[in-house]
TrEMBL record:
Annotated metabolic or biological route of this protein: Nitrogen metabolism; urea cycle; L-ornithine and urea from L-arginine: step 1/1
EC number: 3.5.3.1
Protein name per the record: Arginase
Gene Ontology cellular component list: cytoplasm
Gene: rocF
PROSITE patterns for this protein: ARGINASE_1, ARGINASE_2
GO biological process: arginine metabolic process; urea cycle
Protein's organism: Staphylococcus lloydii
Keywords: Arginine metabolism, Hydrolase, Manganese, Metal-binding
Length: 300
């Protein structure tokens, strides 16, 4: 894994706060390319995929059903194609969001290259809602369930296949805000889940080691989807769905160092950085530091 492709997905359509579409460029501005190159990798920034223009009247309206679904389908197909090309070329795709609905496209582009893709979802939220249980209609609360094969058929069948991931190949880390339907889905499908209480009790090292052990023998690739709201909002204020009581910055560095050492992660999302509600691009800078740890940056 010496060649990294950076792919920006500047989509804000999965939720209702403008600004997360500037996330990829905020992360670039915080120095992500140089940070990874200085570790010793070859980095090719593929730029941002094409996304639809934002119609503010529609974006701010009270939409019936799934909000901005047509735009999200377009984003998902475009991102899937770009990410698939990256995997095909032998590079490691690092996808910069955008809100977490972009994972529909990123994982759709990745999973077709694996027989049993594993997914580590490092997030405050499960993102396992289905439309009939979502009062908001915000699709950034649904991508993992869609990827597992449940939800609107147009999203489930992005890239013309489904499911992209099996529930038994999912690990949730950092959970502290789950809706009732999500809890039932997790229990019914026996999804490996670590709440913040579990992390407090076990420690992040054991959580990551158990996650790796859970996935390593039954998957042929593992995708890491990292939402910056997994961290406590004191650490990452520039994100749209803040939940107190999250992982701290040092814990997350250590988690990513352990994932790097496993040599099992084959692709990664970094999502939900919103510079418009941030403080001096602090959240993007924190995100870049975490990516440094993930790619093996060390002090000595």
């Amino acid at each position: 894994m010496k060649n990294i492709n950076i792919i920006g997905a500047p989509s804000t359509f999965g939720q209702r706060k403008l600004g997360v579409n500037f996330g990829p460029d905020a992360i670039r501005y915080a120095g992500i390319v140089d940070r990874i190159r200085n570790i010793g990798y070859t980095v090719v920034d593929k730029g941002n995929i094409e996304v639809p223009e934002i119609n503010l009247d529609k974006f701010n309206s009270e939409q019936e059903g799934l909000r901005n679904i047509d735009e999200i389908i377009q984003v998902s197909e475009n991102l899937s194609n770009s990410v698939s090309d990256s995997v095909q070329s032998g590079a490691f795709p690092l996808i910069l969001g955008g809100d977490h609905s972009i994972a529909i496209g990123s994982i759709s582009g990745i999973s077709k290259h694996y027989d049993n893709l594993g997914v580590i979802w490092y997030d405050a939220h499960g993102d396992l809602n289905v439309p009939e249980e979502s009062p908001s209609g915000n699709i950034h609360g649904m991508p993992l369930r869609i990827l597992a094969g449940d939800g609107d058929d147009r999203l489930v069948n992005v890239s013309n296949y489904a499911p992209k991931v099996k529930p038994e190949n999912i690990v949730l880390i950092g959970m502290r805000d789950l809706d009732i339907g999500e809890r039932e889905y997790i229990k019914n499908n026996n999804i490996k889940t670590y709440t913040m209480a579990d992390i407090d009790r076990l420690g992040i090292q054991q959580v990551i080691n158990e996650s790796i052990d859970h996935l390593k023998d039954k998957t042929d690739g593992i995708h890491l989807s990292l939402d910056v709201d997994a961290l406590d909002p004191v650490e990452t204020p520039g994100t749209g769905t803040r939940v107190l009581g999250g992982l701290n910055y040092r814990e997350s560095h250590f988690a990513l160092e352990l994932l790097h050492n496993s040599r099992l992660i084959t692709s990664m999302d970094l999502v939900e950085v919103n510079p418009l509600i941030d403080q001096n691009n602090h959240t993007a800078e924190q995100a870049v530091g975490l990516v440094g740890s993930f790619f093996g940056e060390t002090l000595l």
